Every structure is written in C-alpha cells, then in structure tokens.
Amino acid sequence: MKKIAFIVRGNLKDPDKFRSNISKYFQGEFDVYLKFTRRSGHAIQIVEELMEQGLDYLVGVGGDGTFSEVVNGYMLAPPEDRERTVLAAFPRGSGNDFSRSAGKVQSMEHLYNLIKSGATMPLDLVEARYSENGEEKVRYYDNSFDIGLGGLVCQFMNSSGKTWGSTFTHYYNILRSFLLFKRIPVELTSDEFHFQGRVLLIVLNNGRYFGSGLGIAPGARLDDGKVNVVIARKVNILQFLFYTSLLRKAKRIPLGEVFYHEVSKCTLSSPKKDCPIEMDGEVVGNVPIHIQVIKHAARIIKIENPSE
C-alpha cells in the first residue's frame, strides 16, 4: 500500500472537515500520515522524521511558508528516499504564490485524481548558503528570494494581522515599505553577468510570482535549471501603482531602471550587513549569500492547466 503524508499548518480553518475529506478519498487505499504544525520550523522536523517511512507522496497544506518547510525537511532525507517521494502543494495560506506557477490543487477530490493519474514533473530547488547570528546556514527555496524592499515587506507582513484580508494587508505593507525603505548597495556576481550599485530590490525567483500574486519574474520556470533575476534600481511608489496590473499578469515592467537576467548560481554581497532578505515568505540571514540552482531536485504532481 502506498504511503501519503499531509503536513498541515496548525491554524488551518475547519481541521475536522479536512480530516474527514482525507478519510473519504485516501483512507483504505493509502497508508495516511496526518500531521499538524505547532510552530515555525516544525514542518521541517516532521518531514525529516516521516521521510524515514518511505513516503510515496508528501503534501504541504498551507501557504508558501509551509510548503517551503516541507521542501527543507525533504532535502534532509537521503537521496534514495527523496527519489521515491512526489511532492504536492495544497494551497491553504494567504499568498500561495508557488501554486500560481505550479498550478493549484482545488480540492481533496482534485488532489486524489491528480495522484491517481500518476503524472509528475521535475522541480528545481535553490540552495542558499548564508550566515545567521554568526552561524553558517543552508536553506532551500522552491519559489522566491529577494533582497531589499521585499525583505522589509516580509518583516511587516510577519508582524501584521490580516484583519482586512491578505491582499489588502500585503498592499498596505508594500506602500508602507516604499515610504520607509532606502536603497541599499548590492553586488551580484555570476558567470553570466556582474552588477554593482544601489537597488530598491533584487529578486532571484524560481517561480513567477511573489508578494501575494505579483508576477515579478515572468521568465521564471520551475524546471529549467535557472532562476529569473530582476534588478530594480529605482522604482517609485507611483510607478509601482501604475504597473501593478502588468505585475498581476506576470508581464515585464517597461522601465529603464528594471533589468531582467537568468543565472544558475550567483553570490550577493553588500557593505550593509543587515540587508532585509526574504526567502519563500520568511526573513532569513545576512549577506554574503550564495545561491545555486539544483536542477530537478524533486518531483511534484503535475497539474495540466495551472490556474494562473
């Protein structure tokens, strides 16, 4: 009997209904593991332990942060265990930006049918090496990374409530960050190109979206062995508002101070050591930071018609 594990963010609405739907579609046909997280980072620990069971399917239920933790727990397993396991993101969070590129699982029935179809696709993961509190760290991201304005937005988001909804709260914190943030000096070194200067933002995305539906990296693909680099030197708040409709459609911004590139690995550094850095919705570490794409590091369930 095949094994499937659901890693569910602890504050999921109506968990009893979710349990019931799992039983309806999977119980009896699969060995089912259902785990709820209790704190930040808990999913990494849960997945690391469950991978020893020889999982066939590993489903992250929540937002981008939950799925990112699932990925990091998965990468702690030996290669032979990872080769057996297929990943899936079941979006039940606020941003769900990874699923905008990979395709959205709409329901438990939809997930069951996708699994039964057997269709999968390769997924690149990106290794980031950096320091945090004087300690060397290695973390993997599946979707988004940025340094500068986005990191400040993430700091505000993680300390904000969402009384007015995720989208409104995100836009409020973006506008707030535009008013407070001062451009930072950054150097990016890669085999493909070199950049040095003051920036509002540098994005290194595996997926097309970040920031709750902003298609900042229109050229990004989840399986091409590269990250899409977006360098925004100068963008003011009025330009951001004017071009928001293009961002929502994952279109390039036609401004002379916004540049697009692709790299498979690079290093980011800055004389300003406390640059705000965001990785899959979490604030992490300090520069310098070394980025390298691991091509086809995992497999995910294939969704034929991504919703965005």
Q: Mind explaining what this structure looks like?
A:
The chain is built from 9 helices and 16 strands. The protein has 308 residues and is of the alpha+beta class. Strands 1, 2, 3, 4, 5, 6, 8, 9, 13 and 16 form a 10-stranded mixed β-sheet that branches. Strands 12-11-10-7-14-15 form a 6-stranded antiparallel β-sheet, covered by helices on one side. A hairpin with a 2-residue loop joins strand 5 and strand 6. Helix 2 crosses helix 3. The two termini are 34 Å apart. The model has no long low-confidence stretch (mean pLDDT 93).
SSE class: alpha+beta
Oligomer: single chain
CATH topology of the largest domain: Tumour Suppressor Smad4
Q: What CATH first level of the largest domain would be assigned?
A: Mainly Beta
Distance between the termini: 34 Å
- Count of alpha and pi helical runs: 9
* CATH architecture level-2 label of the largest domain: Sandwich
Mass-distribution shape: globular
**What percentage of amino acids are in beta strands?**
25-35%
Averaged pLDDT: 93
Low-confidence stretches: none
Question: How many β-strand runs?
Answer: 16
Order of helices and strands: EHEHEHHEHHEEEHHEEEEHEEEEE
Helix content: 25-40%
Computed Rg: 19 Å
Q: Mind summarizing the main beta sheet?
A: 10 strands, mixed
The domain tally reads 2
